[in-house]
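STRUCTURE:
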């Protein structure tokens, strides 16, 4: 029954991000979902990010704490992103949580070992497919918890240097 959270290491966020992250176990319990994702409320229609598209239903049932996920859309064109934002879609920031038992049951269904040492020996048997496609997109019930604060993916040198106060850290020379 332990909740496991998986998240990337390269976002630049505010303290509130971690406060929302801490609600994932509670929201999993409240909703009974297989997976709980954290989604960023978009600030502009980006073609760089994937989107979490909610089911079209009233969120008053769950006090606006989370939305039920209908589907995902990976890096849409700008006009499609505008339409998704109008449907209250969220940027997929790659944060998700699940009960350990959920993942163990998936491994058993796929006839894969659940013990680390045995999994390591059979690593070559695993499909060469991302966790998102193999597990997340195949889950029966997924919820997303909106995060409405500052978030920036620092996954490229360009986005990282945009946030740096100086172009040189330590001893260095810039020549032009």
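SEQUENCE:
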């Amino acid at each position: 029954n332990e909740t496991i959270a998986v998240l990337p290491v390269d976002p630049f966020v505010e303290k509130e991000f971690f406060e929302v992250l801490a609600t994932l176990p509670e929201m999993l319990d409240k909703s009974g979902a297989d997976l709980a994702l954290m989604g960023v409320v978009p600030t502009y229609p980006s073609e760089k990010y994937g989107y979490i598209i909610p089911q079209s239903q009233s969120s008053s049932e769950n006090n606006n704490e989370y939305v039920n996920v209908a589907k995902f859309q990976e890096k849409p064109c700008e006009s499609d992103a505008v339409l998704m934002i109008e449907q209250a879609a969220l940027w997929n920031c790659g944060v998700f949580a699940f009960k350990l038992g959920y993942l163990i049951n998936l491994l058993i269904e796929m006839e894969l070992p659940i013990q680390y040492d045995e999994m390591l020996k059979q690593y070559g048997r695993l499909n060469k497919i991302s966790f998102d496609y193999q597990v997340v997109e195949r889950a029966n019930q997924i919820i997303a918890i909106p995060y409405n604060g500052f978030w920036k993916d620092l996954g490229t040198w360009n986005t990282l240097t945009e946030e740096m106060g100086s172009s040189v850290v330590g001893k260095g020379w810039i020549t032009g």
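REMARK: DSSP finds seven helices and eight strands in the chain.
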